[in-house]
Amino acid sequence: MLLHKPVYFMLTALLMLTLACGGGDETASTEGQAVETESYFEVDSETAATVTGTVILEGNAPRNPRINMSAEPDCHGLHTGAVRAEVVLVGEGGTLGNTFVWVKSGLEGKKFRTPSDSVALDQKGCIYSPHVLGLQTRQKLAVSNSDPTTHNVHPLPKINREWNKSQTADAPAIERSFSRQEIMMPVKCNIHPWMRSYINVVEHPFFAVTGADGSFELKGLPPGTYTIEAVHERFKSQEISVTIGASESKKIDFSYKAG
Amino acid sequence: MHLSLKRLISRTKPDEELAVVNRSLHRFALVTAFSTLCLLVAGALVTSNEAGLSVPDWPLSYGQWMPPMIGGIFYEHGHRMIASFVGLLTIVLACWLASVEHRKWVKKLGWLSLATVILQGILGGITVLFLLPTVVSVGHACLAQLFFCMVCILALVTSPGWQNRNEDRSYTLPNEGVFSLRRLTIAVNLAIFLQLILGATLRHKAFGVVPHLVGAVTVTLLVVWIVIQVASQYSDEQEILSWTLILNGLLAVQLLLGAATYWIRHVTEFAPQPLPPMVALTVAHLAVGALMLASSVVLTFQIYGRDGRGIAIRARELPQMS
Q1: Which of A172, B19, B118, B134 has the fewest CB atoms within 10 Å, counting from its CB?
Q2: Residue B88 pLDDT level (bands cut at 50, 70, 90)
């Protein structure tokens, strides 16, 4: 009987390992299928306010480093010229793109409905597009592969559940969601280590990602006092407190220093 | 005449055969040790190229024995292939030792090496399936170093030189006080292994660089202490002196590599991908660290398996000579 103990132990360990491994996908895929029976906060369109603004980078913007795809012909062949990382996206007048702007505080206790449409993240030219994106908690993220090569999609969350899924050239989109709020969660491809994107998961719909013109708009906000935060992967975060009245529109600008 | 020749043959042939077998076994153990060093380098390449999760499944890669070797898959699957080869070598080595080796502890070490390489493979699989949990990844890195030491010990103790030296079992081990060379070598083994753990935790982002720097200072002081003691007291013990100098030389190279690795990681902080010089320096730093631990272990074996009586006599004679 004693001789059998190690065997039982090994079988139990194997069973636990199998359950643990097999359970990952199931849990992750049902993260977005929360039963929506709760009461949601509805913004009164008559009093809804707007916060707009621009993100500026002062000083000489650092040059984005060049990506070397030469070791990967499938990726290299998709580009005609030099490819640079999309870290610092600067427009005319020093406007800063790829900055995530969101309402960090002021909406506590309010629950917002999860949008039914999904947010797209594509892998094109062995680059993630867009480089920075935002979505609501439990909203679907659809990751597609437009490249003629295999990628693996690997978010690196600190709060949400981590996952890693390969996607061949002709594979359908991977649909996943995140259940917890998390800002600037990196996503990477371990096959092509230069591929990096940032996902921002927010509990409400008041967020924006700046384009090259650095502008953002947070519309439909209920009147109140809010902390608005701008987050950039290189220049980190800044906060501005703003109070807006009913139907009011306020402009705030964020300014980073390039040094 | 015939009878005496027969007796001679019957007496010498088994010895000759044994010698041939041992030489082959020793060579095989050397090949296994070298392959293990290559495996360590391959593992370091996986981490340095951030390719650890480029293959999301295990034990197969993308459900295949041979996936397309693109990008990070080349490093990850290449690591798995070399690991399988080393596993195969270890099976053969353990079985070979079991069949021809007369020292029980060497046989046991062979089986322990096999158990270690199997456990190491499972840890590697768990690392992939559970998305690089720090504890498992660090454990995988450290167990690799231990396994490398085991096969290095097997390569050493199967060498004809080692076996001839050990024939006289009447010798006692030297023990010259609290700070004896023996104790120092044990301390340096532990310090180097701890330093390798700290290096792995730094690599897998569990701790910062400060503990690793403290470890580097500790190892340096201990190795320098050993060098001084060996040079002053045992300079005519060729093998001990040689291995001490090898350890010292590796330490010098390792310190330079460590500084260079830290510098290049700092200057390439914003690089979009792991750059070849950074990868090369980091991998070299890891490989030399493994060689340092192996050298330290071999030195320990040289000291413990040495003609203790001779050392002890010389140690006693030293004060009189001065």
Answers
A1: A172
A2: very high
Q: Are A232 and A98 in contact (CB under 8 A)?
A: yes
In the predicted structure, residue B52 carries a pLDDT above the cut 80: yes
B273 touches chain A (CB under 8 A): yes
Q: Do A194 and B272 touch (CB under 8 A)?
A: yes
Establish if A149 touches chain B: CB-CB under 8 angstroms: yes
* Residue B175 pLDDT grade (very low, low, confident, very high; cuts 50, 70, 90): low
Contacts of A68 in chain B (CB under 8 A): 273
Per-residue pLDDT tens digits for A119-163 = 999 999 999 999 999 999 999 999 999 999 999 999 999 999 999
The predicted pLDDT at position A24 comes to 39
The full DSSP string for A117-144 is SPEEEEEETTEEESSEEEEETT--EEEE
Closest chain B residue by Cα to residue A163: B131
Share of chain B above pLDDT 70, in %: 84
| pLDDT at residue B6, as a whole number | 36
CATH 1.20.120 fits B174-322, yes or no: yes
| Domain limits, CATH 1.20.120, in chain B | 174-322
Over residues A98-111, the pLDDT tens digits come to 999 999 999 999 99
A19 interfaces chain B, CB cutoff of 8 Å:
no
Chain A neighbors of B50, CB-CB under 8 A: 188, 190, 193
Helices B276-304 & B238-267 angle (0-180, nearest 10): 160
Whether A161 has its CB under 8 Å from any CB of chain B: the answer is: no
Q: Write down the pLDDT at residue B178.
A: 59
**Looking at beta carbons, which residues of chain A come within 8 Å of B273?**
67-68, 193-194
What SS3 class is residue B49? coil
At B60 the pLDDT is: 96
* Answer CATH for A39-257 from 2.60.40.420, 2.40.30.10, 2.60.40.1760, 3.10.20.310: 2.60.40.420
Domains of chain A: which residue ranges? 39-257
3-state per-residue secondary structure call for A205-236:
CCEEECCCCCEEEEEEECCEEEEEEEEECCCE
Please check whether residue B301 is in contact with residue B153, taking contact to mean a CB–CB distance below 8 angstroms: yes
Tell me the one-letter amino acid at A120. A
DSSP string, chain A: -TTHHHHHHHHHHHHHHHHHHHHHHHHHHTTT-----S------TTT-EEEEEEEEEESPPPPPPEE--TT-HHHHTT-SS-EE--SS-B-GGGBB-S-EEEEEES-TT---PPPSSPEEEEEETTEEESSEEEEETT--EEEEE-SSS-EEEEE--SSS----EEE-TTPPPEEE---S-EEEEEEE-SSSTT-EEEEEEESSS-EEE--TT-EEEEEEEPSEEEEEEEEETTTEEEEEEEEE-TT-EEEEEEEEE--
For residue B108, the model assigns a pLDDT of 97
